[in-house]
Amino acid sequence: MKSKLMNKILPTVKNPIQYIGKELNSVHKEIKSDTIRYAFAFPDIYEIGMSHLGMKILYHLLNEQEDIYCERVFAPMVDMEEKMRRENIPLFAWETMDAITHFDFIGFTLQYEMSYSNIINMLDLGEVPLLAAERTKEHPFVMVGGPCAYNPEPLADFVDIVILGEAEEVILEVMEAYRKWKKSEGSRKDFLHSIASITGVYIPAFYQVEYDEEGKITSFQPISSAYPSTVQKRIIKDLDKTYYPDKVVVPYTNIVHDRIMLELFRGCTRGCRFCQAGMIYRPVREKTPETLKSIAEKLVKNTGYEDISLASLSTSDYTQLVPLVKNLMEEYKDKGVGLSLPSLRIDSFSIKLAEEIQKVRKTGLTFAPEAGTQKLRNVINKGVTEENLMEATRQAFEAGWGTIKLYFMIGLPTETNEDIEGIGDLGKKVVQQYFQVEKEKRNKALRVTVSTSSFVPKPFTPFQWEPQNTMEELKEKQQYLKNIIRDRKISYSWHEPKISFLEAIFARGDRRLGKVLLKAWEKGCKFDGWDEHFKFNSWMEAFEECHIDPSFYAHRKREYEEKLPWDFIDIGVSKSFLIREHKNALKERVTPFCRENCVNCGVENFDGGWTCYVDC
Questions:
Q1: Quick check: helix, strand or coil at residue 55?
Q2: Which residues of 148-184 are buried (b: 16+ CB within 10 A; e: fewer)?
Q3: pLDDT of 89-101, one tens digit each?
């Protein structure tokens, strides 16, 4: 197979170097009889998957274990897949080019609901039975984790194991259980039984669901008292002591984020009510500057990268950010290594900090007001004002920036036409701000981009009970805003409502959606997050043929009393807090930043007790 791939297939496909492996710092091991073979699978193409921080961490963590060999697997591009199917070449792992069906585990990371059809397609291409119930002892265990795993139910038919939360510790515990099982004569079910009680592990096959006549869940129970009725997520308590790679694989071709990613902290306590990440990743845990400097030094030395991205959910909330940035800039300013901050909050924006960071390379600035009026920013608990944005952009223009991007959402709960008009008004005011700056100071070219995405209600957020706007409503709002924005210095971009609709269905879906997913894949659906491959009509046909109403999942308002498909998962943040926050949203009440005043979200009682801050 390897010879056919190298000599016959790869010379005929686009960007063949992405399939070859053997990049700098990729791991190659001798395979012995007791080697556990783990395929870390990213359900999208190499260019996107290689930018994923979780893959970088777990790939090297697993490979540092003597008897585990972790390889990488990505979705081949459409031209490559066509040739593989024509030549009967199964999906293979990048390091050895061995078919993934020979592995012990295939672990998918779930970053985005629209990748679900790619998971089905990759299993099929890998000649692995699609349904977990049809796999035998000779087949790999299919494992999933990542943010979308916090509602794993739409994939319940296809996966054997779900990892909830941070995987660094729990995955090694699962591997240890596998070592013991492999030496035994146990069945496949015996292994799953042996790991079902590990905190952070959920086995979908060990649970059953019942529904009422309206299709609402009436019961979600384990099939035996041996399995927990509530599954708690895993967290890493001390990030300074947990594993972080001191070298990462350096691709030979361009990828989305081709740089060092320095993770400052995990969690976010800002409390934006639409944001799932802000809830599921609590509590906040920071790394010390000393640890970060040490990691940065090793990564620069071992990769040759000339860019370090300071990565976290709200990077400017890192308590030691200013001294850390100054220290890193001092260390690397003469070595041509630049820093970048991927996310900036308007209120904590420091133009001096941005200037410091962008001494090496000056790029555009991006701000996310999210909503056009203060009323709606209060509803979503964004905690920033128009004055914050005007002050930040004034300073930016005075410092010579000319390119500003503004991100908003449309379709948010309680939204009116006035809120849509507010988006256009903010764009205009940013342009006016530019012209109020002295000509000598400002950049000669001005470019303001207004971008809107569509609100998708996500599990474990205060808005999880809210309906999504219909596609027609979202299109009307987009057109309304397009008509308002007439200034040629402002460009407007928006997301396709059809994709947001599918995203909303699967974000809050239950395990009945598995048959829709399978039917849609049979109709050729894959790469659904890519406009050029998205087959909306095929999806709608799949829903119709499965007799499932997609609006039931996307457009229906839930009551607090309704049992939700993900209610069996404990993320630390309590449901009573989410209800309280939802009620506060409808009253336009702002909940303070956690560091200013503990909001009793519940995480302080999580995992034996947690203190977020010294004075908490």
A1: helix
A2: bbbbbbbbbbbbbbbbbbbbbbbbeebbebbeebeee
A3: 999 999 999 999 9
| Residue 442, pLDDT above cutoff 90 | no
- Model-wide pTM > 0.70: yes
pLDDT at 607: 81
Residue 217 near residue 565, CB atoms below 8 Å? yes
d(CA 450, CA 18): 34
Q: Which H or E element spans position 189?
A: helix 188-195
Residue 309, beta-bridge partner list: 261, 340
User: How crowded is residue 590: how many other Cβ atoms within 10 Å of its Cβ?
Assistant: 16
CA distance 90 to 100: 8
Q: What would the mean pLDDT of 545-553 be, rounded to a whole number?
A: 98
Return the percent helix, strand and coil in the chain, to nearest 5: 40, 15, 45
Question: Residue 456 is encoded by which pair of tokens?
Answer: 């998708």
Q: Which amino acid is at 81?
A: E
CA distance 454 to 409: 5
**Which of helix, strand or coil describes residue 616?**
coil
Residue corresponding to tokens 């944005």: 389
d(CA 462, CA 583) in angstroms, rounded, equals 8
Q: 250-301, pLDDT tens digit by residue?
A: 999 888 888 999 999 999 888 999 999 999 999 999 999 999 999 999 999 9
The three-point CA angle 570-169-287 to 5° equals 90
The confidence score (pLDDT) of residue 18 equals 94
Residue 446 neighbours by CB distance under 10 Å: 17
The encoded tokens of residue 171 equal 């995955």
| pLDDT (average), residues 470-482 | 97
